[in-house]
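Protocol step 4 of 6: record predicted structures for both targets in the notebook before any analysis. Target 1:
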Amino acid sequence: DILSPHYYNGLLDKLDYANNPRDFEKHLLDIGALIKKSANPNIKLYISEWNAQSTDWRTGLYAAGILNVFERNADLVEISCPALFLRSTTAKSWDNALINFNQSSWFPAPNYVVMKLWRDHYAPTLLQLDTPENSPLSAVATESDDQHTVYLKLVNPTPDHLPLTTTLTGPFTPESASMQLLAPGSESARNTLQNPTAISPQPAPVSLQDHTLTLTLPPLSAAAITLTTK
């Protein structure tokens, strides 16, 4: 009833955080089509190992993109689990762990930081989200059970500023909006034992007018936006 693929994104010199999540989404759709034609059309996927092969900001951008893919395809992807989980800083290989430690301290890699931000902005109901064709933006919209909160999780994997305007349709009338932004400014940015919060979410401006949200995503950034109503 469960298929358990592993999926890693390339070696360091070929790590593709922009297009690789989109390519994997196409692969997921192909798998889903095969499952629907199979003798057991109710098979689900457990992506039991996924990650990029680094602990710089590229792995954060990749994590944000691939988590959006999983959430957009939640009818097929039942569960997912990144690897590597824990790693000593003295280890010789597999430098992609979420938690990195020595004998007295630790720091979160960018994939950990992104995963926590995405989890803190989780809601169970996936909303329809229309984006322009060929847009580099990765986006997911969800709504809470009580219908008082909508979350937008966005990724700009490009080296350019990305201005965005989003209009909500339907009964939800947003009354406030806030954004938590990850934008360290460089692919090579990273957390370390000496500076464990170099990459961490920061509040950023977002404009709300009636049902329309306006913002600009900086280059190489990931963001979680919260819209609330009474």
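Target 2:
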Amino acid sequence: MEQKDKIKLTLKQIGVTIAVIIIIMILNIAMQKTDKIQLTQLSPQGSSQMMGYLIKTRENKIIAIDGGTTEDTNNWIQKVKQLGGKVDNWFITHPHQDHASVFNEIVTNHPEIEIGTIYYTANPVTWYQENEPERAFEAERFYNTIQNERIKNKAKEVELNQKIKIDNVDCEILGIKNPEITKNAFNNSSMVIKMKINNQSILFLGDTGEESGQKLLQKQKEKLKSDIVQMAHHGQAGATKEVYKEIQPKICLWPTPNWLWDNDRGEGYNTASYKTIETRQWVNELKVEQNIIAKDGDKTIEIK
């Protein structure tokens, strides 16, 4: 064989080897790619109850749900920076400060955090002033925030039964503001979000109250069943037992600090007037497999 032919043969072999290596790399990447998501429940950094969730999708998009109080901001920032520093989609269930204050702080004071689309539901400020005047300032602050130049073109008010696809997560809005429900006004106008990934489902109830919970039973009963549920209003004085019976959860997410979990006003177990202990009994009766409680620190679970 001539030297020229040997060189051609060697180059051909090298080319085949490189092609095989590339194919193996592509196959490895494809095999490693799964439809799982990571869901993190954040824990309170102060004494207040709060609610904040971060979800990492298959393609590393980050979904935030609420966030917590001002005291929870630094912990939230740390977690988001670990995930890449950008929130692709942010759902705000309602403007109460233990849910929306982190959002207000990030938009106003932390331009280093990139924010994509914001989804919210809220009544006009005047409605809150009429129906929950002592806390109407919280709605005013939220509305001021979504008018911030940074995000005012990114904030979208959701519609009932609206479907939103974010990577491998399919969202459906099962509950929005309820202006006709003026009792427990803020909470009963919480957004309710159902998320599906493969054969798993997650239901976020926000601070859904008894009245809006009954509305869910009337309007969305067939859609409530979910593998995972975020306990309404931190697990106390929220949705009723009948709602959880329809949900039939396997896992309960409790955005609940220690004092609220034990219904302790400083005098010991079950000495306060909250309804957490009653809700815990419901969950036991439903034979829930796992409770993930904010009092135990930040927790991340994988959902396939």
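Step 5 preliminary note on target 2. The two ends are 57 Å apart (CA to CA). The CA atoms of residues 58 and 79 lie 18 Å apart.
Proceed to step 6 after PI sign-off.
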